[in-house]
Amino acid sequence: MTVNVTSADWYALAPISIVAITALVVLLADLFAPKHVNRYLAIVLAVLGIVVAATDCKAAYAHDFAAFGGAFIVGGFSVVFQEIILIAALGSVVLYGAIGKDDRIAGAIALMLWSACGAMLMAGAGSLMTIFLGIELLSLALYCLCGLADRPTAREAAFKYLILSSVASGFMLYGMAMLFGASGSVALADLTNPVLASNPLLWIGGGLFLVGISFKLSLVPFHAWSPDVYEGAPLPVTAFMSVATKAGTLAVFARFVYAAMPSGVADRLLLPIWIVAGISMIAGNVGMLAQHDLKRLLAYSGIAQIGYMLAALAGGTALGMRYAIFYLAAYTFMNLGAFAIAALISDDAEQGSRLANYRGLAQKSPAAAALMTVFLLALAGLPPTAGFLGKILILSTTASAGYVWLGIALIVGTAISLYAYAKIIRAMYQRDEHAHTHAAHPFVPLAWASAIVCCVAVVVLTFVPPALRDVLPLVR
Amino acid sequence: MLPMSVPLIDYVALSSVIFFIGVAGVLVRRNPLIVLMSIELMFNAANLLFMAFARAWGNNAGHIFAFLVITVAAAEAAIGLAIVVTVFRTARHVDVDDVSLMKG
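Output (structure tokens, whole complex):
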């Protein structure tokens, strides 16, 4: 097979290249700029690069194109995921700019941008090779980012994430080798050959591949890393990780489910994943009840939320895909918003993000308490927030696809989670004589701005859900 | 498929043995460096499988994939060793069980 590479192929990679080059520019600018402006410069350059990449990315929305012989597929599907990843990168870069240490700003922002490149690559990956490259680029940058804070828990988080994530990559890679052996090609599209349905290599390889995916998505039997890593990592990094890894991996998983399976295999091979998604919804929400740290709590919340998104994909309908993407977008905003408020409240460097800090918050800062309430309600899935609409849509699609038990798990999980979220809201509105005083971060307005933008998005998405075009044909 | 002097199944068997030695190493050994080495073993088991299947199918993509994996594994080892150094710099002896400030 010969592949003719034309300029159109390179244009397909333009958004990723822009982000990667921005990371280099941020590093270089930090090297030559005077000390007192380097924070401004890093933030401005990174935001500029992300905005340019997002604008450039949009152009491919209506033009599907399989670049590099199908190794990288751009179109509605990849664009939506890439935009979500860019939003996550934007939010986390701004948060890092708001509370990060001066001497690490440029390095951290550059690593975040490279990590975003990996996730964006995953969003368009059409071959096993691109998937592996994307996952490793995403993960390698995240290992470094996790260890950036000056406390032992951060180094521990980096170490745990490194070991566990590498093992998961190993399983995934071995699975990919088996899939390659089954089809004789690294292209995902070649896995749809009906001859493969009886090939044991496809079953074993597919299973190992899905184990790796489940780990990266932190589904239940493979979730133990996520609370520790979320707690240990610096707060903006946790915010980025919670959205970008989920978005990138969900894109890979969705493409695998919708466009890389011979008919007849998908139902049986994926059944364990749907079961695990159901268990994650319950276990994630139960795990939330015992937490005393906001980042740990949001990690358990994320385990449940990814269960909801997978539930939308069960059954493999076009509508389910759109609803999963909608929920992912909503989750991005509510999660980033919650982390923005956490950045305002907690002194991340020393005491982490203890939930005790939130007692009596409404007295100290009514606005922060109100915004946090909106985000927690959205995470719990109550109206008038996008979380509510997303859950209703997911319930409708799981029911019509014949996965009623997943819908029941979603409702039970939501009921459990209400208690955990309500506990924080109650604590915020309690009177407390010893309410925690804010840590004075230098660039607090930035965190405020991102919290307000997220809050507006969470509410507006409910009433004006974006008319996503049917992205299913573009996956193939 | 192309004819091969050593049957394909032997390569698959060998690579799965190597893979499981790697998995066992990660689970059993307590020294972080040995754990990193075991992870490399898992990656290399996959490489062997890629090479065998590339030969069997006459498709060079497997060779290229193996090169890619070697490159990525090198990057991963560099970052991994750096993290191990930062974690264990102050420790007398290195043992992964000592890294337990947080309990998932």
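The two ends of chain B are 47 Å apart (CA to CA).
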